[in-house]
Amino acid sequence: MSSPLLVAQGVQKTYVMGRVQLRVLRGCDLRVAPGEFVAIMGKSGSGKSTLLHILGALDVPQAGQVLFHDEPVFAPPGRRRFATSALDVLYGYERRRIHYRRFAFGFVFQFYHLLPELNVLENVLLARMVGASTFVWSRQRARARADTLAVLGHMGLAERLRHRPAELSGGERQRVAIARALVHKPQILFADEPTGNLDAVAGAELMSLIKGLHAEGQTIVMVTHDPTVAGQADRILRLEDGQLRQV
């Protein structure tokens, strides 16, 4: 049996809102194998998105750890930084988190988060430009453009390259968002309610596309409240009372 690609160990997260503490995650454990498609279900407000953001190094847990290829994603609890700043690049663990987000992880959200002033090609190409110096980008631009055109073609968007988000349907916008997540060839695709903003037909088409990516070997971790969507994964977990349980 192959080693897990991603492991969560005892992940805890509490939000402080004035004098109130909201304990969202109470010791979540998870193992994701390479090529696996895992769905996490739970009620609204159960902490699904919080857990996904921690797994993808977007958020930081107060306790517990996430391992990617057996390497810790977060610093030891006493040394964790909970607020992002320009000084993050001075810390080894923070540089590692940035590296994972840029190169190893891809993210798709319920609300597409496309830049309205950019067209489809530019929105996706931008993901390859982030962090590249002018010199590096001058050498990588042709390859990045070719990769971008290839992934947009794979998403069925070859005829929409010059369209802006306002000129696209909801399903097309989400496919652009998936293309943006895939353009740097991530090892894990994290999807947060990817069909939540789509009608039934567009949602079914999007899930067919996601299943096709999985069939090609893409590792996927998805959160959803929809049992029909979750049922298309290899494995379903439910987040209840701050912990994950097998369905």
Notes on the structure:
The chain is an alpha/beta fold and 247 residues long. It has a single domain, classed as 3-Layer(aba) Sandwich (Rossmann fold), CATH 3.40.50. Helix content is 34%, strand content 25%. The protein has seven helices and ten strands. The chain has a six-stranded mixed sheet with strand order 6-7-8-3-9-10. Strands 2-1-4-5 form a four-stranded antiparallel sheet, with helices on one face. Strand 9 and strand 10 form a beta hairpin. Helix 3 (120-129) runs parallel beside helix 5 (170-182), helix 4 (134-154) packs across helix 5 and helix 5 packs parallel to helix 6. It is globular. The model has no long low-confidence stretch (mean pLDDT 92).
What is the helix/strand order? EEEHEEHEHHHEHEHEE
User: What is the averaged pLDDT score?
Assistant: 92
Indicate the percent of residues in helices: 25-40%
CATH superfamily: P-loop containing nucleotide triphosphate hydrolases
The rounded Rg comes to 18 Å
> Count of DSSP E strands?
10
CATH architecture: 3-Layer(aba) Sandwich
Strand order of the largest sheet: 6-7-8-3-9-10
As an assembly, this protein is: single chain
The largest sheet is: 6 strands, mixed
Low-confidence stretches: none
Number of domains: 1
The name CATH uses for the topology is Rossmann fold
Distance between the termini: 22 Å
Query: What proportion strand?
Result: 25-35%
